[in-house]
Amino acid sequence: MGLSIGLVGLPNVGKSTTFNALTKAQNAESANYPFCTIEPNKAVVPVPDSRIDKLTEMVKPEKVQYSTLDFVDIAGLVKGASKGEGLGNKFLSNIRETEVILHIVRCFEDPNIVHTEGSIDPIRDVEIIEQELLFAD
Predict the structure, then answer these.
(1) Which of 55, 84, 116, 125 is the most buried (most CB within 10 A)?
(2) How confident is the model at residue 112 (pLDDT cuts 50, 70, 90)?
(3) How many other CB atoms sit within 10 Å of the CB of residue 44?
């Protein structure tokens, strides 16, 4: 098992789109409604390492094991998640299982994509997620 990276953020900020781009898996549905993701999407991405390739040529082991990155696309958190709002406690428990938190923040305007807070404000959005993570800790 490799380094576990959890993608977190508010709903509809691009977590599943980022997950699909990073993993090339294309198995995470992304749609224009909050909580499109309920169960976390998971993918394992091997990390190529030319040093291991060179050692493999010299030693010729029976098996070669590259490091991996284990990405977890976690459903969007909302304000109040630490108090049980939405499915907050379930999503927060998914985050606890990861070693790294990759916070995805929406910084673009698009009238076709709903924002749960009603407007684009990256600083406010970062503070919401940070506050929920602190309260849940």
Answers:
(1) 125
(2) confident
(3) 13
CATH topology classification for 3-136: Rossmann fold (3.40.50)
Q: 132: exposed, middle or buried (C-beta count within 10 Å: 0-12, 13-18, 19+)?
A: buried
> Tokens 């849940």 appear where?
136
Q: How confident is the model at residue 91 (pLDDT cuts 50, 70, 90)?
A: confident
Burial label for 33, CB within 10 Å (0-12, 13-18, 19+), is exposed
Mean pLDDT, residues 71-86: 78
Domain boundaries, the chain: 3-136
Q: What is the DSSP letter of 102?
A: E
How far CA 97 is from CA of 25, 38, 113, in Å, comes to 21, 16, 29
Per-residue pLDDT tens for 37-53?
A: 668 889 999 999 999 99
pLDDT tens, position by position, 49-71? 999 999 999 999 999 999 999 99
DSSP assignment of 39-63 equals SPEEEEEEE--HHHHHHHHHH--S-
